[in-house]
Amino acid sequence: MTAMVMTACTGQKAEKVEATQDNFNYVVDQFADLQILRYRVPGFESLSLKQKQLLYHLSEAALMGRDILFDQNCRYNLPIRRALEAVYTGYKGDRTDPQFVALETYLKRVWFANGIHHHYAEDKFVPGFTPEFFQTCISQVGASALPLREGQTVEQFVAEISPVIFDPAVMAKRTVQSGDVDLIRASANNYYGEGVTQVEVEDFYARMKAGKDTISPISYGLNSRLVKENGKLVEKVWKVGGLYSSAIEKIVSELQKATAFAENDAQKSIIGKLIEYYQSGDLKIFDAYSILWVEDTASDVDFVNGFIETYGDPLGMKASWESTVNFINKEATKRTKVISDNAQWFEDHSPVDKRFKKEKVKGVSAKVITVSNLPNADWIRRDHGSKSVTIENITEAYDKASQGNGFNDEFVWSDKEREGLKKYGFITDNLHTDLHECLGHGSGKLLPDTDPDALKAYSSTLEEARADLFGLYYLGDAKLVELGLVPDAEAYKAEYYKYIMNGLMTQLVRIEQGKNVEEAHMRNRQLIAKWVYEKGKADNVIELKQRDGKTYVVVNDYAKLRELFGTLLAEVQRIKSEGDFSAGKKLVEEYAVKVDPALHAEVLERYAKLNLAPYKGFVNPVMKEVKNDKGDVTDIVLDYTEGYTDQMLRYSKVYSFLPSYNE
């Protein structure tokens, strides 16, 4: 499929901007540790007008919920973003002043991360401007442009906001996922009200689950904030008429418009059921919507919209809002169809214990677009299947922007590995994603009476490890050559090498020196790489070699490495299937969290010399309606010319519906 991720739409006429391979400029902006890219949307012009209008309204619905994620990530994100935007647009001083340049960079980071915490490391940003400069800027802007509370003065606003921005001890980390602290109180995210403790949360939902259906359980807590009112815990549900209503009403309005352009009755039912869920907040209706979504494999246009992924909650229950819109890339989807059609073979030949395998894999489908694997509920995957997507136009943008950047010359051991990465890297990277999303997340089963939330704070890391290991194990299987998914039996080695190098070394560029690994996907990769490195030492499967004072990863035995992936996959599946919290905790804490400080310092130093940004993000093409003199829509065209800052400011102006404080 082709992704239209959070695509903007306007009602103005526009000339079509061609985005050919020859003239397309992928790099838009670079700041801090980020590089902002454009991505092409090949095939959009060939869609029917009805399909384009469906994409238009689904994309509008995607943008309507933008502020929800900001508020979920931290209750001060919206007032800080809006205050910074007011300063940026109204500043009357020297814009080349290093203090203002630092404020501009800080604002760009806030836009990218949907808040004041790093999108991956989850630590709070350290501003490069002073509190005094900030106060001067705020005073210059004036009260009318600031997100003040009722009756609040500018001075009181600065006093409230400044510690959140400048004090490293205040709201230091968005999500704390391990350690002996109270994970809820230690986390700065906004899924729980002030004063709510981890024990109280766990007891509250344990009582809610007691005696309920364990065969097809409801995802309790998925779409609410848990707060205390008069000393009693109460759920504030995210729905029309509930929390975030002003934004959700706008989402619903665009979904209702989209219904008129649905490709078929099944798709119309999906959109209708999502609207019903937003209007009621009923999680049973969300499950019904998820089942309809999973079972629709015929529609060319597809979308994700709602409270879905639970990685932002340290207990893995409450979901962040997200939305993507896409349409199928039929040629690229042939690859994922082959995988889907053979899902039962992969399940049957998995190295996990037979007790944890699905006897019959149901409804697995995969298309090429954005990585998303709705739903989270294991029972829906078990009984109704899973639908996964991979972004090929997004991975293409990554690939094109990274060509010739010097990374492989600096970190890859020899020409042999570099040639393998050049020849097979793009193919095997996409294929690993396909296997991870389509089969990995959808594989295996829980034992009867296993609580799906049994792994608590470690569930996200272990689930990602399970899916990655499934993909890694099968990349080296002769079946992939037989199915025509890889050109030969050597291809898998490119992904194995890159994965181990990244997990052991190069992903450390994403972490500040002295910090541990916190983000679930990074923990997953380090867990796998460190485990197979340690367990393979006796056979010298992987080495960390020194040359000219630099450390390199060398894989000596790819066949044994695959065996180790299979062994670890079997154990992680057992942990999940049995809900073995203590074993899961031990695995994560022992292999996934701690960082070798000397190796970390070396990687940071080597990477800094390349002048590369370790993270990539995107600006979206702007969807614009073309109308005739009667006001009828005659076409939808894409404009690829909008810059990053212009897009973010426009989003904040056009798509902000929530109050600054949603308490």
What does this 3D model show about the protein?
With 663 residues, this protein is an alpha/beta fold. 47% of the residues lie in helices and 12% in strands. It has 25 helices and 15 strands. The chain has helices spanning 49-64, 66-73, 77-90, 98-113, 131-141, 154-166, 183-186, 198-209, 245-259, 265-280, 283-295, 330-341, 343-348, 378-384, 392-402, 407-411, 415-440, 459-475, 478-482, 492-504, 520-535, 558-578, 581-591, 597-608, 644-654, and strands at residues 2-4, 8-10, 27-31, 34-37, 224-229, 232-237, 301-307, 321-327, 365-368, 387-390, 542-547, 550-555, 615-618, 622-627, 633-639. The strands form six sheets. Strands 1-8-7 form a three-stranded antiparallel sheet, with helices on both faces. It has a three-stranded mixed sheet with strand order 2-14-15, with helices on one face. A three-stranded mixed sheet has the order 3-4-13, sandwiched between helices. A hairpin with a 2-residue loop joins strand 5 (224-229) and strand 6. The relative contact order is 0.14. Mean pLDDT is 90; it is low at 1-22, 367-375 and 386-390.
The rough form would be described as globular
List the strand order in the largest sheet: 1-8-7
Q: Helix coverage percent of residues?
A: 40-55%
Q: Bin the strand percentage.
A: 5-15%
Distinctive features:
663 residues; alpha/beta; 3-stranded antiparallel beta sheet; 3-stranded mixed beta sheet; 15 strands; 47% helix; 12% strand; disordered N terminus
Gist of the model:
The protein is α/β, with parallel strands linked by helices and 663 residues long. It has 25 helices and 15 strands.
